[in-house]
């Protein structure tokens, strides 16, 4: 689990990122979770955008994505979800 300090640090790091994935009408599926997992391995910190036509609550989507990809949910702000997962191969972010 991330501490408050670590979450603040990751939020500041994520501020300038643009969302890589969009969750739309179909919601979350296995394929999306696999892709997010792969990208998290490469980047460690990503943003996911929840589109207005998504039938699911953004908090539900965030929970599904973080559990599916075994990632930490850093923040849900507006319709944007910030996820973090420590990379096994390319560790770049050093948490405080």
TrEMBL record:
The CRM domain covers: 1-96
Q: Which UniProt keywords apply?
A: RNA-binding
GO MF terms listed in the record are: RNA binding
Pfam families documented for this protein: CRS1_YhbY
Q: What PROSITE patterns has UniProt attached to this entry? A: CRM
| Entries under InterPro entries matching the protein | RNA-binding_CRM, RNA-binding_domain, RNA-binding_YhbY, YhbY-like_sf
At the top level, the lineage of the source is Bacteria
- SUPFAM superfamilies noted in UniProt: YhbY-like
Q: What is this protein called?
A: CRM domain-containing protein
């Amino acid at each position: 689990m991330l501490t408050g300090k670590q979450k603040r640090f990751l939020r500041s790091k994520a501020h300038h990122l643009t969302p890589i994935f969009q969750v739309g009408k179909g919601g979350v599926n296995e394929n999306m979770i696999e892709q997010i997992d792969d990208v998290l391995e490469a980047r460690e910190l990503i943003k996911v955008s929840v589109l207005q036509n998504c039938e699911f609550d953004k908090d539900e989507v965030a929970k599904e994505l973080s559990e599916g990809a075994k990632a930490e949910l850093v923040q849900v702000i507006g319709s944007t979800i910030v996820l973090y997962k420590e990379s096994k191969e390319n560790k770049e972010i050093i948490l405080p």
